[in-house]
């Protein structure tokens, strides 16, 4: 008599990290292996969160921001992220700037009408600008009063690192989704993974479905973080050159790419370009979905 083979199922490992819901999905017949791979993905997310958080003295960003103007020597991984941030800053003509986090002192995008006064923004602008940072690998010196925030890179980087760690441990198809930014290690046995795009309309559960075999998807948008005053919507996407929200950006940009960092960078830069978002994405030959 032929032995019945248990079909492969998709096992889900859920947790919260980096302030967002996270999930690792693994297709396998082995539930214990699925659990192990889920824990591997979670461990990588938590490692990156601890190392690059600006809120706790557990890692490099806190050390930089609290160095009192003295140089901090970075390890190879952190130096690589700083190199990448500097490269994107140059390519974006200053629109992407990891020193712009101090603008949180004026802006709180909670859906209210509390738009800061111009004087509040002007008082913070002397503390914004990557060109004011001294970066001579592996030493970084941040002027007093300035802060670095790698939040615009780290979630996507964590997705990629988790995917790589899972691929090193197993050939099982897996999908790593950290707060809507995701990467797959390969397609499922029955075909691609189905991924929902977040809907702009709160009454809808999804804005559409994408099919993805092996690759990554990232989304930038203002569906949940914005201000609304006198009929004008202020996006949480700030232009660090002015301290004010980008004028007339898309509501949402979703990009598919080989890695999550690539997808996230393209979607963020598109948002920062406002009305020119689609022109930019076409010039980059990006596979993208833009909602206005």
Automatic annotation (TrEMBL):
<dbReference type="InterPro" id="IPR024932">
    <property type="entry name" value="ApbE"/>
</dbReference>
<keyword id="KW-0808">Transferase</keyword>
<feature type="binding site">
    <location>
        <position position="152"/>
    </location>
    <ligand>
        <name>Mg(2+)</name>
    </ligand>
</feature>
<feature type="binding site">
    <location>
        <position position="268"/>
    </location>
    <ligand>
        <name>Mg(2+)</name>
    </ligand>
</feature>
<keyword id="KW-0479">Metal-binding</keyword>
<keyword id="KW-0285">Flavoprotein</keyword>
<keyword id="KW-0460">Magnesium</keyword>
<dbReference type="Pfam" id="PF02424">
    <property type="entry name" value="ApbE"/>
</dbReference>
<comment type="similarity">
    <text>Belongs to the ApbE family.</text>
</comment>
<dbReference type="GO" id="GO:0046872">
    <property type="term" value="F:metal ion binding"/>
</dbReference>
<protein>
    <recommendedName>
        <fullName>FAD:protein FMN transferase</fullName>
        <ecNumber>2.7.1.180</ecNumber>
    </recommendedName>
</protein>
<keyword id="KW-0274">FAD</keyword>
<dbReference type="GO" id="GO:0016740">
    <property type="term" value="F:transferase activity"/>
</dbReference>
<dbReference type="InterPro" id="IPR003374">
    <property type="entry name" value="ApbE-like_sf"/>
</dbReference>
